[in-house]
Design goal:
This protein is of the alpha+beta class. The chain is 19% helix and 41% strand. The strands form three sheets. The protein has a five-stranded mixed β-sheet.
């Protein structure tokens, strides 16, 4: 089976063609650098995503947050459920952990709030 992807690792945006068989990558073409090949292999066998969102603070204002490492793509909805249930207590600094251990990642603040 052939799958076409656009590499998102660098600004070149290489158009990749990935041949798979039985959920295994057989070949990758179209990549300009080795990172494109790694991206294509990961995207076809174990796609990961960094989740960005907001959490409501104890004063009712939104706080921007993200996962501190990518999580499995199929777990994004469950991750958002956890984020939507959370409340952050002020004050908050960038990098503070808001929710621990969400599919191998922590949800961290991406802004300061007093």
């Amino acid at each position: 089976m052939e799958r076409k992807l656009t590499c998102i690792i660098c600004p070149l945006g290489c158009e990749l063609r990935v041949e798979t068989e039985d959920k295994k990558v057989i070949s990758v073409s179209g990549n300009t650098c080795p990172r494109g090949k790694v991206y294509a292999e990961n995207e076809c066998t174990n796609p990961l995503r960094t989740v960005t969102s907001t959490v409501i603070c104890s004063d009712g204002t939104p706080l921007s947050v993200k996962t501190d490492r990518p999580i499995p793509k199929e777990k994004m909805a469950e991750c958002m459920e956890a984020i939507n249930k959370a409340t952050a207590t002020l004050p908050i600094k960038i990098g503070d952990v808001i929710i621990e251990k969400v599919f191998g990642s922590n949800i961290i603040a991406t802004q300061n709030k007093k």
